[in-house]
Amino acid sequence: xxxxxxxxxxxxxxxxxxxxxxxxxxxxxxxxxxxxxxxxxxxxxxxxxxxxxxxxxxxxxxxxxxxxxxxxxxxxxxxxxxxxxxxxxxxxxxxxxxxxxxxxxxxxxxxxxxxxxxxxxxxxxxxxxxxxxxxxxxxxxxxxxxxxxxxxxxxxxxxxxxxxxxxxxxxxxxxxxxxxxxxxxxxxxxxxxxxxxxxxxxxxxxxxxxxxxxxxxxxxxxxxxxxxxxxxxxxxxxxxxxxxxxxxxxxxxxxxxxxxxxxxxxxxxxxxxxxxxxxxxxxxxxxxxxxxxxxxxxxxxxxxxxxxxxxxxxxxxxxxxxxxxxxxxxxxxxxxxxxxxxxxxxxxxxxxxxxxxxxxxxxxxxxx
Length: 368
Known about the structure:
The structure is a single chain. The chain is of the alpha/beta class. 39% of the residues lie in helices and 17% in strands. Strand 1, helix 1 and strand 2 (75-80) form a beta-alpha-beta unit. The protein starts with 40 loop residues before the first strand and ends with a helix.
């Protein structure tokens, strides 16, 4: 699978680079004495299904990588909490009871899951936080630079408004769930770009990231501000962007204002082609999922040098300082670079994107 080289500066979450060399690294990772062979059991806990990425990309990519790293002897015990924090706590307890070797956790609620993380620690099971930085004694963390994601979104919206940009331009902000620490970081990054340049007329924290909740919030914003007075909409992800478009259409809007997004969902890529959404943030799920699998297997096999090489950065959570981490870079996805991002990385085939309804739009940008 061809990868895209994207160079960005890590700017968020108190990241401290560990320097040019690997921490405490000497010799080859092959020199390590594995504490466990290839018969590893990795627990994978994902947070919800409203965002299609988890079922479509993260889980299958992660599972395939674990199998390839363990000569098909390793297994993945998988559970999706469907946005229910209590359900996820039960799922995690089941994995602790099943004595899995390591847990990779994408938390529904980063704060309330801390007790479960502690229970895993007490049971001798390492926990790697995936995509969202859970609280508690986390052993490692892998995600994207979340404040940078927000900065890219905010900067793209400003660029979409062009030279006529004014502090009187009214923007609606549709942020993610208040229980997701990533949402706070996306919001902070976006505000660092938007504040002082436009007017934030309405701002919402969207319960459970659900598109229908974003649609309801947007309907309220339209009634308060007036559809014609909304110059752009900051949407923290693509699912909510879909709900925002529905609300605007219901209000009679035929020419959409610039709308941001994140996750490069297929429907969002098609909306971008159709001028219904301005941009998304493309995050290489293969890179994130495969690196998480490598971290998990290296951790339980005692390959400390390999693990250190995968986690050269450091982040702080509200409960734990200096967590070994890897932050994966991101890129703004627009009409102009669809072929160089999601198509090049084999996330989608051109045939997936350029269905009959979008054939003309694909032809216009020479997407074949």
